[in-house]
């Protein structure tokens, strides 16, 4: 209970930071230079801290995930089904985000005045080059330059290395585990400063641009929530019905408490106990839910993927940058991986947004704008994230039951076949 109270108070802190930032920004409209010289640097510090923590969090959490594949192998068919379901629905989620953002022109009609958030356009590499460039020729340079796709490749290969090293890799696994925990704590510290960060980021933006700047943000919220709702209603209803053989109405009725808690806490990990209970009521066996749900709370973030797709297009549009088809494909790839690397705690999806933007050469400074409304976006994306986890548990449970029934039937038939 105490923990919940703490999370809610962070929500309030951030909301207050945002509102105060907007009010101060409006008051300082005729003295924008004060906001830019004295308040903006605080926001820059907050952004720098976010950038600082991206590499260790991605590297370590993905390595941790890969190392736990050892367990996935043991769990065999459940593991493969779970990972395939998670990856496909996440890739679909980014696509939903990109489609809505493009069709509804999420950032159109507002071009950020040059000089407010500085950015220099870089030439987009070809698709083949993008693919080749994913593989680094140096294991350390990508960590230093924060080249995120390369960081992920390093994490995957070294994660596999730890598994293959067997007993001798045990020490490395423990060290990775320990450092991953440390990085998550650092991330939490930074998230804890979000109210000040949000305040300092939004004040100079409103002071320099006036309230008009808030309108496009409202559109981001609307487009993201449209994507969230469509994904929940279409993708999860369909999978629960078709694969899980369950009425979507029953599914959502049982899930309502988890979804509500996700909305207020913005933490997939925090929702875990509620989700275990809800899927239990939906008939999912405990050995399946206790494997599928914690894994999902760590690696399956469909809402985060939608949000990243929408924000990438928004930031491209307000900076007047045209994203070609290959770049949008690259966003699908990176956002799928980025959402895997997103920890199930409040605000971490925004940190991973930096990785998606970097992968297609979009200005990180764009985060300054969406940071102000991140909490609102986070509440919705967490609802999608945990609903996706539960829908997977329902589907995998049904598939396993069918497999077992099929096997039992075969076993019953075999002796009969062999009878003379
Ligand atoms: N808050 C989200 C979650 O816990 C992660 C994110 O920030 O996107 O699922």
Model description:
With about 425 residues, the chain is mostly helical. It is globular. Helix 11 runs antiparallel to helix 18 and helix 14 (about 300-320) packs across helix 16. The model is unreliable at about 120 (pLDDT under 50). It has helices spanning about 1-25, 30-65, 70-75, 75-105, 125-135, 140-145, 150-165, 170-190, 195-210, 215-240, 250-265, 270-280, 285-300, 300-320, 325-340, 350-360, 365-370, 375-420.
What topology does this entry show?
Blueprint: H1 2-27, H2 32-67, H3 69-75, H4 77-103, H5 127-133, H6 141-145, H7 148-164, H8 170-192, H9 194-209, H10 214-242, H11 248-265, H12 268-281, H13 286-299, H14 302-318, H15 325-340, H16 348-359, H17 367-371, H18 374-418
Q: What are the main properties of this structure?
A:
420 residues; mainly alpha; binds aspartic acid
